[in-house]
Structure of VanZ-like domain-containing protein:
Amino acid sequence: MDKKITTCATLLFALFIILLSLTPVNSHTVESWDKVFHIILYAFFTALSYPLANNVKQFYWLCFAVFIFGGTIEFAQSFIPGRVMSAYDLLANTIGIMLIIMITRKRWLA
């Protein structure tokens, strides 16, 4: 896939996460699938950014950027009505990132 298209898709997905995460809600009820959703969302975000890296070092920096993005979203949620900042959400985001690192690790070691 062309890097311009991948970059646009990654940025659009980041915007999707921002809109999804920072929309005010009436009440904060944690569903049983919430953490699984975080894992899937951030695994997909990391996988989407994977083709942007030319080497393993760049990929790890992109993973770090996705982690910081997730942390920033969690912090920002503390200012949104009906939302709360959650270390468990950040942990679930990190698990999603780590899954993609483990899956793609073989490519970088080859």
